[in-house]
Each structure stands twice: as structure tokens, then as C-alpha cells.
Amino acid sequence: MSPFENKALILGIMAGTAGISLMLIWYRKIRKPGAAVHVPAFLDVGNRLNSVGLQNEAPAEQGVVMVLHGRQLQMLEKLNGLLVSVDELKREVKFLKEAIPKLEELVRSELQRKRDVQRVSPSHRATKRRKASGAAETTSSEEAESEGGYLTAHTDSEGEFEEEKGWMKSPDTIVKSEEEELFNLLQQVDNLHKGSEDDKKEGFRLLIEKGDKYENYVDFLWRLARAYGDLFEMTTDAGEKRKYVTDGKIKAEKAVQLDARSAESHQWFAIMCGYMSQFESVQNKIRNGYLFKEHLDKAIELKPQDPLLYYLNGRWCYSVAQLSWIEKKVAAALFGTPPTSTVEEALQNFLKAEEMRPGYSKCNYVYLAKCYKDLGQKNNALKYCDSALSVLSVTNEDKEAQKDLEALLLTLKL
Q1: Radius of gyration (Cα) for the chain, nearest Å?
Q2: DSSP label at 340?
């Protein structure tokens, strides 16, 4: 083939390529959205163009044309795929634009439903009215109508917002709220425990009201046991005493089971066992005595700075030292070896309580006097009798101690 014919062939191929490109641009402008390019149609156009200019060419020249033609088809296929993807993306964007307003309305409706469910108790409405009226009082008479409307709406939205915050509280927030409520309750009960008999009864009532809610909280349970002990001390009815100590022992035992490291739980379980011995047979009385000592020792180990525990330990030592022969035999039969203690050990515990807190209690003074009397130290016994007389009798326990004191003074003056 002559040079002139070669140039003509190349120009023909370039014209064919330009024609296909122009055809693609034209198609891109007029095609309907979503319609894809049908590649075989372009293939047919290319075939026809090739057939016009290359019917009588040599095989080598036809090979060059076919390579160029194949690359054009590959480009067309890629462009077609890109156009299809762009159209799909446009449809998705359009769908999202239509869906977003509906989604916003759905969220708004759901929030409104939640507010309707949680709102509005009578106390809540009263609170909002108080807020609105309080705010309205600060406005002038000229602005009352407009400002009052604004303030009421603002207060309502504040209340609704608080409700939404309550609805969205996390479990950690709820737990912290319950712990704070329990802390305030226990603090109030502790203060009432230090007051009059009416105060102690009120503390007991508050604890009973929350019994179901905080039945698994150790600090709540031992305080409830303590409150049962307060009522036990206040009442003179034997049936009521037995009921209070029975219920109190159950609460204290549960507290010990929940936390064996709680000194107060051991302390009040021991005290309940001591109270219970007043209503038991000799056998059960001794069994409760062993429980008393076991848990009292544990409480002293956990809280060695409490004078009450040494006073109670002194009471146990003094009681064991006073056991009758039959009681010691029963204890030996039940437990192998009976409990043992001496008046001297009791005295050391009472002195320890007095040392830790001078003037600790009227009862402690009376038992100090009893120990010195039993040990033959009359002057020391009279000394502590005088100390006991100087303390007013406030509780029933004090009044019982006063009776013991008067009987003790009669024996010392003989």
C-alpha cells in the first residue's frame, strides 16, 4: 500500500473514533434517566464503519484496526457503567430527600407519644402552675398578657424537657439516684435514733415504709434491726417484745449473710440474740449465748473503737460468770464445753468502755459497781454507785438500771 493510502486509512480510523465520541456525547444528552447504553449497538456501528474503509485491506492492516476498535469498545463499556452508577446515585439521593422529612415527623411523633405517656400527674401540673404564677408576679401589668403566655409556655416546655430527661436516664443515673435517696433516709433515721421515743418510732416507721425497696441493702437492714431493738426497749408488753426481737433478729441475720464484714450487722445480730434469750428455754438460751459471743467478737474485731461493744462483752462475761450449776451442765451436754468467763474479765470490759468514753452510760456504771461488790471492793462499788446516781434515767434500760442500783445500794449499806 502506498504512503498516501496509509495516511488515508489512518485518517479514516480517526474519523471513525471522533464519530463515535460525538455519538456518545449526543446520546448522553438525549438519553432518558435510568436507560443504559446498549453496547452491541455501538459494536454494530463500529463494524459498519470498518466495513466501508477496510473491505479490501491486508490482514496486517485489519489487525491494527481491530485493536483500536476493541479499546474503543472497552472505553464505551466503562463509560456506560459509570453513567448507570450515576443514575442510581441520583435516585438514592432523591429517595433520601423525600424520606428525611417523613423521618423527622416520625421522630417528633414518637417523642410526643412518650411525653403523653409520662406526663402529667396532678403534682406535676401543680408544680408547673406554681412556676408560672411565680414568674408572672415579676412582670409588669402592661406585659402581663404577653409575658404570662410566654412564661407559661416556657415552664411547660421545661417540665416536658425534665420528663424527657427522666425517660432517657441511664441505669447508672438511676442507681446513683437510689443511692442518694437511701443515704438521705439513713441519715434521717440515725438522727431520729438519737432522739426521744417518738423520734425512734418515727424512724422505725420510715424504715418499714422502704422495707421492700431496700431489703437487700446491708446498711438499711442493720438499722431496721436496731429500730426493732428500740421498740423492744420501749414496750413493756411481753408479746410485743417477743415479736420485735424475732423480726429484728431475722433482719440482722440477713445483713450478716449479705456482708460478713459489716461490724454493725454482727453487733445487732448479737444484741438480738441476747434479747431473745429472755424468752427461751435454758437450752435455747445457751445456744443464743454462744451466737451472741461469736458475733460480738467479730464486731469488736471489725470495729474495736466502739465502747458499746466492750460494754456488751462485759455483760456477756458477767452473765456467764453468774451461770447456775444446771445451766453449766446443760451447756456442757449441748456443746461439749460450757462457756467460761469471770467477774474480773467482765470488769475489764466495763472499764474499757468507760476509758474510751467517760460517763458512757448509767448501765455501765451500775455493772462496774456490781463487779467491785462481787470482788469485795466496797469502796469502789460505792464510788460507781454515786456515778450512776448522777446520770438521769432516760431510756427504759436506764430505768431498769436505776432499780438495780437501788437494790445494790441497800446491800452495800448493810
Answers
A1: 48
A2: -
Q: Is 171 helix (H, G, I), strand (E, B) or coil?
A: helix
Task: Name the least confident of 39-53, 244-258, 344-358.
Answer: 39-53
Looking at residue 357, what DSSP letter applies?
Answer: S
Dmax over CA atoms of the chain, in Å, equals 159
DSSP, collapsed to helix, strand or coil, labels residue 324 as coil
The percent helix, strand, coil of the chain (3-state, each to 5) is 80, 0, 20
**Residue 122: count of CB within 10 angstroms of its CB:** 7
Contact 361, 371 (CB under 8 A): no
Asked whether the beta carbons of 385 and 409 are under 8 A apart, the reply is yes
CB 367 within 8 A of CB 314: yes
Asked if 36 and 84 touch (Cβ cutoff 8 Å), the reply is: yes
Element (H, E) at 363: helix 362-374
**CA–centroid distance for 201 within its chain:** 29
d(Cα 66, Cα 221) in Å, to the nearest integer? 95
Q: By C-alpha distance, which of 338, 284, 336, 340 is closest to 316?
A: 340
**What residue type is 229 in one-letter code?**
G
Phi then psi dihedrals of residue 296, to 5 deg: -70, -40
Length of the chain equals: 414
Secondary structure of 120-163 in HEC code, one letter for each residue = CCHHHHHHHHHHHHHHHCCCCCCCHHHHHHHHHHHHHHHHHHHH
- For residue 308 the three cell numbers come to 458499746
Amino acid 403 reads K
Grid cell for residue 198: 417518738
Answer for the pair 412, 383: CB distance below 8 angstroms, yes or no: no
Cell 443514575, residue? Answer: 87
The highest-confidence range among 94-98, 234-238, 296-300, 331-335, by mean pLDDT, is 296-300
> Looking at this protein, which amino acid is placed at residue 346?
A
Copy the grid coordinates of residue 379.
469502796
pLDDT at 65 over 60: no
Number of H helices, E strands in the chain: 17, 0
